[in-house]
Design goal:
The structure holds 2 protein chains of 2 kinds.
Chain A: E1 8-13, E2 25-31, E3 34-41, H1 49-55, H2 62-66, H3 73-88, H4 94-122, H5 127-147, E4 156-157, E5 160-161, H6 169-192, H7 195-201, H8 209-214, H9 220-224, H10 231-234, H11 261-285, E6 304-312, E7 315-323, E8 331-335, H12 337-348, H13 354-364, H14 368-372
Antiparallel strand pairs in A: 1-2, 2-3, 4-5, 6-7, 7-8
Chain B: H1 4-15, E1 19-23, E2 30-33, H2 38-47, E3 55-63, E4 67-75, E5 82-90, E6 95-97, H3 106-117, E7 120-122, E8 150-151, E9 154-155, H4 167-172
Parallel strand pairs in B: 2-5, 6-7
Antiparallel strand pairs in B: 1-2, 3-4, 4-5, 8-9
The chains are: A alpha+beta, B alpha/beta.
């Protein structure tokens, strides 16, 4: 009898696959269940946003930024508005700054809810996803009341925000926070302490701090590896310097390995608490007043260039904008968190099982439209 | 934390003639570096203990009209300072050495820049299109890019009679 032999198989995963979080394809080379190579194939959602940006006036690009990362549209709006404001030297009124932080942090909660819920559902636990969606619906209701949209909000404007908070809205946000804060503990009881869930994640695919920096991981993925870096703290913008909050980092939760899938997951859970803390402070201090400064209708920022980065739920989103003094930008380059998260998968997935790849994708919180732009 | 001027000074002291221009005013202080010496300069910026620019945020391709340009946006986690490098390449056969050996993050950024701007990165381990299909013609982010009439038998033109193109002016009305 000949000795047992194994061959390398090529396996196609996606582009339509429930766990790839959007239209992403992987070409897997596997040795049995073990991944020898996972080659991500991206670009299915490429809409040429950088080219479109060169064709439309600065304010008209705002709705397109919603589609960059539709789970965190307001964070993307804000990133674009801030870039143009820095380029053109526009000051934003205080009330608008507060509304921006409130909505952006609400959007961060909504985005993290999808992330942790879908990771749980990828691991075979469907109930947490339903819980997450239920709470996210309440945030969507608040946004709908504020700006009329439930997904692509198009709320932030260059020089302010689009709509003022309607009467009683701030109180309803406070009501939501009172409801939601205990729900984080309920969610933890439901899944974060679940033995099967923890065992599937706590030692899988650890990313060292060096590797995370080398591949340019940002946001919760970077902090999951123990690097305490948050643009809201380290390169603050808006009114973040006046707000108190912690930056949670991975520390080998549940006796796992530092930087494992579970650390990335727990960083997001801990960030939810910080979001609640930030929004409460803003609700206490929000001043009355204008929500928009006068910005010329045909905005022509002076000749120059800027690289402006902000902390979105998926980490650093950076707009590199070049202005030639025209109505439209000369060049816009968009750097997103999912792009670098996607580029690390090839090295990270090697030697893990196919089922672990699902955990890796879920814990890195990759979202296809942000990769492809 | 080092100021952009201090970083530029260190690079200039070490690589004098390789620095073609130094722009320290404005919101993006940067140096323009000779393409041939890019790898040495980048290795120095990353490994020098006082600079330690260990995070490559992005590589952006820019069409300057006459030339193409790659912009490297850098940051240091250790010292909390940022800096930028620019490298120009001729429009005909634009080639720049890869920095993917220095920052692995550059691998995908350079592939994207090759795909959309058409800058070739010599020494890149896997330089192929990333966002567009492999058989796509041209590089869309170049200013002289002509939109194709069709791709793979699928028309890319809109029906002008039903949906007249309003043109970019319509958006600013």
């Amino acid at each position: 009898m000949s000795p047992l032999q194994t061959d390398i198989w090529t396996l196609n995963m996606g582009p339509q696959h429930p766990s790839t979080h959007g239209v992403i394809r992987f070409v897997l080379k596997t040795d049995g269940e073990i991944i020898a190579e996972a080659d991500p194939d991206v670009g299915f959602l490429h809409r040429g946003l950088e080219k479109i940006a060169e064709l439309v006036p600065y304010p008209a690009f705002m709705p397109y930024t919603d589609r960059l990362d539709y789970l965190a549209a307001i964070n993307m709006n804000w990133a674009w508005a801030l870039s143009v404001e820095r380029l053109a030297g526009i000051e934003v009124p205080p009330r608008a700054e507060y509304l921006r932080v409130i909505t952006a942090e609400l959007n961060r909660i909504a985005s993290h809810l999808i992330s942790i819920g879908s990771l749980a559902s990828d691991m075979g636990a469907f109930t947490p996803f339903v819980h997450a969606i239920r709470d996210r619906e309440r945030i969507n209701d608040l946004f709908e009341e504020l700006c009329g949209a439930r997904l692509t909000f198009n709320y932030v404007r260059i020089g302010g925000v689009g709509q003022d908070a309607p009467a009683g809205w701030c109180e309803r946000v406070r009501g939501f926070l009172d409801y939601y804060e205990p729900m984080i503990d309920v969610f933890n009881q439901l899944i974060s302490d679940n033995k099967i869930f923890v065992e599937r994640l706590r030692q899988v695919a650890p990313v060292s701090a060096e590797m995370a920096k080398a591949y340019g991981l940002v946001g919760p993925n970077l902090r999951g590896s123990g690097v305490k870096f948050d643009l809201r703290k380290d390169e603050p913008y808006g009114i973040y310097p006046q707000l108190e909050f912690e930056v949670p980092v991975g520390r080998g939760y549940r006796d796992g390995v530092l930087g494992s899938c579970f650390d990335r997951y727990m960083v997001r859970i801990e960030e939810l608490r910080q979001c609640v803390k930030i929004i409460r402070q803003c609700l206490d201090r929000i001043p009355e007043g204008e929500i928009q400064v006068k910005v010329p209708k045909a905005l022509r920022p002076p000749k120059g260039e800027v690289y402006c980065r902000t902390e979105a739920p998926r980490g650093e989103v950076g707009f590199y904008v070049i202005s030639n003094g025209e109505k439209t930008p000369a060049r816009v380059k968009i750097r997103t968190g999912s792009w670098s998260a996607m580029s690390i998968i090839r090295e990270l997935a090697q030697g893990w099982m196919i089922a672990d790849l699902v955990a890796i994708i879920g814990s890195l919180d990759v979202i296809a439209p942000e990769v492809d732009r | 934390m080092a100021t952009p001027a201090a970083i530029a000074e260190q690079v200039q002291a070490r690589f004098g003639p390789a620095v073609l221009a130094s722009v320290l005013q404005g919101q993006l202080p940067h140096l323009v570096i000779e393409a041939g010496r890019l790898q040495e300069v980048c290795a120095f910026l990353k490994d020098s203990p006082e600079l330690k620019l260990d995070f490559l945020s992005a590589v952006a391709g820019v069409d300057l009209g006459g030339e193409l340009q790659a912009v490297y946006l850098l940051y240091s986690y250790a010292h909390h300072h940022s800096f930028a490098l620019k490298v120009n390449a001729p429009r005909e056969n634009p080639t720049i050495p890869t920095v993917s050996g220095i920052w692995p993050a550059a691998n995908w950024h350079e592939r994207e820049t090759f795909d959309l701007m058409g800058i070739r990165f010599s020494g890149h381990p896997d330089l192929r299109r990333i966002l567009l299909p492999e058989d796509w013609l041209g590089h869309p982010l170049r200013k002289d890019y002509k939109y194709p009439e069709s791709y793979d038998g699928i028309t890319l033109r809109r029906d002008e009679e039903d949906w007249p193109d309003p043109g970019p002016e319509a958006l600013s009305k």
